[in-house]
Amino acid sequence: MATKTNAPERPVPTGQPKIAEDKLRLVLAAEQLAPDERGAFLRRQGVHDRELQAWPARSMLAGIVDWDDVRHFLALARTGSVRAAGSMLGVSHSTVARRVEALETRLGVKLFDRHRDGYLLTDAGNEMVAGAERVEREMAALERGLAGQDARLEGPVRVTCTDPFIAKILLRALAGLCEQHPGIELELDADAKNLDLSKREADIAVRALLPSASPPEHLIGRRLVPITLCSYVATAHAAQLDPERGARPARWLGSNLRKITEQLIASSSYPEVPIWGTFESMEIMMEAAHAGLGFVMLPTYAGDPEPGLQRLAKPDLRYLADFWLLSHRDLRDNARLRAARSAITAAMTERAALFRGEAEGWREAAPLRHELAPGADAPRA
User: Fold this and answer.
1) Orientation of helix 67-79 relative to helix 82-89, angle to 10°
2) Please, is 265 exposed, middle or buried when counting C-beta atoms within 10 Å of its C-beta (0-12, 13-18, 19+)?
3) pTM beyond 0.70, yes or no
4) For the segment 165-199, what is each residue's pLDDT rounded down to a tens digit?
5) Closest CA to 192 of 166, 212, 163
6) Roughly how many angstroms between the first and final C-alpha of the chain, as a whole number?
């Protein structure tokens, strides 16, 4: 998982005049309206035209507070901890505390109650969140617009994917690009969580989508390869554990997605075999299988290349979903991201046989079943 380096810490502004709490509440209320409706609303509340002219049309809150303070406020609101917020932003926890205190001083209101267990939003803080998130979206849109016009093959390329097995493929794909263009700096996050492309938490995502799903409208997407599930057992323990051969009682290794695991097993060739244990990741499940603790369902891109694993006699190959390449529309013309998307697409599609369960050495008569993840609709053509 990519680590964040501490960003240079800007001095906290001091000496700014306070904003009356009633004015702040009016601004926050106006933030919920369309830009062309805000002026009329505020005039009805007694705000003078001269004062309105000092506030930007796009975001009124942005006109009265520092964006860096807003970022620190949102991070603390979302985490409830100055240390967690600092880790999220790549700054020290003391910087988060100072920034939030500076914002409270500037606004003249208390945004958080400090407790032993962390920071809790006050009523004013809760009202502040919606307006602050609007500022965040507008700043992110501005940043994307500028980045989308960048014709240089240099700068950061932030990529997120589902797991370390996909990350290994992406690293090999992007290593050549980074060598060819030394100005490119790669950040790679391998985690099932969905980083927000709109906020530029990542520039490019390789994500799994059900056959019935499509990418959100604000993203551009390309379907890359299928995700095919298969059942595996450790070669060293196959004679004892494979239900078609073994003498020992068989058992499935469980995952932290218990309900999905149960439903997949119920439609397998061995629905009566019990589930044993709970293992948080595919890597740990593999180690448990190698140790002879049971047999396991894995995607073929992870299980087929793994030394010491083999398919069960009834492997139950099943098409479950697809990997998609996603990025924000505003970044479509960014040169370095366009080059990175091209490299990722080539690397994934070149390995299509591995993702279909047809890699060399594994072509066999077992039929591929088009089976959806629990709760999904019928697959699209």
Assistant:
1) 130
2) buried
3) no
4) 999 999 999 999 999 999 999 999 998 777 877 77
5) 163
6) 35
